[in-house]
Amino acid sequence: MGCCFTPKLRCTDRRHIQTLLVGLTLSAMSLSASAQPDATGADCSCLWEGSFSEVAPETDLVILGKVQTIKGNAVDLVPERILKGTFWLDSLRVWMQARDYCRPPAADFPPGSRWVMALSQISEVPEDGFDPFTPNESFGRKEDYVLSSCGGYWLRVNGNTVTGNLVPKMPRFYHQPDMSPVLIDLIAGFMSGAVPREALVEASRERPEEVDALILDTRSFLRGQEGWIPDDDAEKNIPAPDSP
Question: pTM of the prediction?
Answer without folding.
Answer: 0.70
